[in-house]
Amino acid sequence: MTELVFFTNQVIISGLVLGCIYALGAIGITLIFGILRFAHFAHSELMTGGAFIAFLLASLFAAWGIVTPIPTGFVVLPIAMVLAAILALGIDKGFYAPLRKRGAKPVTLLIASIGVTLMIQGLIRLFFGAGSYSFFETEAKEVFRFDLTGIGSTRPLVITEPQVLMILVTFVSVLALHFFLTRSRLGKAMRAMADNADLAQVSGINTALVVRVTWIIAGALGCMAGTMLALDVTLKPDLAFNIILPIFAAAIVGGLGQAYGAIAGGLLIGFAETLAVFNWTMLLRPLNAILPDWMQLPPTLALVPTEYKLTVAFVILVVTLLVRPTGIFKGASS
Amino acid sequence: MIQRSLTLFGGLFVLILLMGWVMGAPFTSSRLVEAAAYALIALGLNIQWGYGGLFNFGIMGFLMVGGAAVTFISYPVNPVFWGGEGPAMLGKALLAFAGGALIVLAARKADRIGITGKWKAVLTVLAWFVAYVLYRSQLDPAAAYIESAAGGGWVGGLGGHPILGWVFGGVLAAGIAYVVGKICLGLRTDYLAIATIGISEIIRALIKNMDWLTRGTLTVSPIPWPTPLPQEFQAGGMNIANSLLAARAGYLLLALVVLGVVLWLISRAYAGPWGRMMRAIRDNHIAATSMGKNVTARQLEIFVFGSVLMGIGGAMLVSFVQIFDPSSYQPINHTFLIWVMVIVGGAGNNWGALFGAVLLWLIWVVSEPLSKAVFDFVSTWSTQFGWGAIPEIEARSAQMRVFVLGLVITIALRFAPTGLIPEVVKRES
Description:
The complex is a heterodimer of chains A (334) and B (429).
Chain A: H1 2-36, H2 43-64, H3 72-75, H4 77-101, H5 106-128, E1 143-146, E2 157-160, H6 161-183, H7 185-195, H8 197-202, H9 207-232, H10 244-254, H11 259-277, H12 280-284, H13 309-323
Antiparallel strand pairs in A: 1-2
Helix pairs in contact in A: 1-6, 1-7, 1-9, 1-10, 1-11, 2-4, 2-5, 2-9, 4-5, 4-9, 6-7, 6-9, 7-9, 10-11, 10-13, 11-13
Chain B: H1 2-23, H2 25-51, H3 59-74, H4 79-83, H5 86-108, H6 117-147, H7 162-184, H8 189-209, H9 211-214, H10 230-235, H11 240-271, H12 273-283, H13 285-290, H14 295-321, H15 331-345, H16 350-384, H17 393-415
Helix pairs in contact in B: 1-2, 1-16, 2-11, 2-14, 2-15, 2-16, 3-7, 3-8, 3-14, 5-6, 7-14, 11-12, 15-16, 15-17, 16-17
């Protein structure tokens, strides 16, 4: 039983947390690709910027002496999401809209998004330095330990409070997004425009409004993903820049332009990364008792060494592009 | 057009002189050597993007391959490794690799014996897995042995001439570019960008963690120079400042010769039928296909050519700084910077790429001391007003280069989308 609990701690919980973060980031990327037809690299900076906005708000709350029952990071999240959505709208207005008006190709927009990445990252580093911050400097990070000796496990099941909230919040927002996309007029307009922009325009859909809503959703979800990642680990200026490629991998694996695909892709990449570096001997150790001497399991039996964890996502990405470039859910073709 | 280019290059020359005057000749001379290497890399990207319209965002990977190649060729031989069992174990790992490759190839030909569809896919996946396990089972003990004291720590170099290392860097980059191109070139632009970034990250992870081959984060130094080192001039009785200048002048001369030859060759290629065909493919590959051009093969060709230049440039950079440190490679410094160089300079125009490379490299190195000066100035000013000084000026100004790079590319895209020295489109009237 101990082995199964260890597996749950190491793979199921951390894979789910990582998958949630990837999925939230990938939704934004996939929506922007569906509506505006370009790969938005600066999404990583929307995430990092959103996390820093939340961090500033949380510090303000702490300075005012407001104590909340759940981590302050989650309390300020709605305000931070609104601010991040405004930031995303501003970035579009300032950098991408002029290029779109000129009729620039998607490639130019992609390069422009790299320029935006560099500028925002430079600004964040200018104001916050290169060090790392924690949301839990003034409050304790609560850790739940479930004692499982009753079912024969010597090891407790460990999950932190942010992780529980993170999974809940992701679930709720994905559900909300689902209802928005399928039930509301605007959500339907978004899907129509992703399918065929010209047809959507001639049938009277306000495309400018759809573009704005896309940026609002992308900015808000990006902020959510960044803040949750910062709550789970630490907040650094290159927080999301390092995981933007796994997020792209998630969006492509799910099929670019497909919101549900992004969720599936995010969870897939998250679990693939944790499973690939998991030491299987820890789970299969009881087998040593029944296996003959020459077949004893080695002390480490992982698919790839831990230092190659991020590489797993790239390998999945490349294989997907080769075997099925449209992704699981048949997104935009390559 | 000619006049504009001349003015711009004249301005660049004045800028270099100014930099030499303010920052000192030794500093400027080494920056110029690096600028020459970056110019070579930018020309490589210009071939791929400017001539062929290929979206290569994996430049960092090719630079690392070039650096690893020159380290391997020119670093002195490691006798402990060659005397131990390491070579034999590596030989076994190579055999396992070959065996694995055979298994995968055999699985791909499974339809010959009537296994098709789903079963073939299952068989292929299984073959990959078996091949991987086979390779790892041989490589892991070999790597562990070589990294131990008995194995010599790492394989060491071959002790060859650094120029040979540059050539090998180009060859190795070509080989990898061939494989990458075969895999990715069928993809559309955005996908190609993401795929190449992914591959360059895989290359980085491999080079960083294969300690037995590259020494990984432990870094390798000193890597020998192809030209006489400052120490050799000092042994001849020269003072330190002059010896630095003389040695760097020698290196710069060699780099400029390489750059000149490359520039001449690719300009000839651009003007010739091959260049016209490439531009035709870039502008409309469907029309080019209908004219009977083999678009995929030509694109692969140009991808490999460009990557060779990147490999050589990466090798030149590493042998100049004399240290190979895989953890110093970052996508911002080694991929995005090159892209900004080519776009600001003018994609499709070799002189534009050259100009952009030198200009951007100078901006990149100058922006740190410059922003430090600005911060110092603002800091004294704000202290006088009683607002207090700016904290951590050193660390903050070091981060400003990233912002400046982003600002430059944003301005360029907005106001000069074709670059400062744009491509000249000739039309027959």
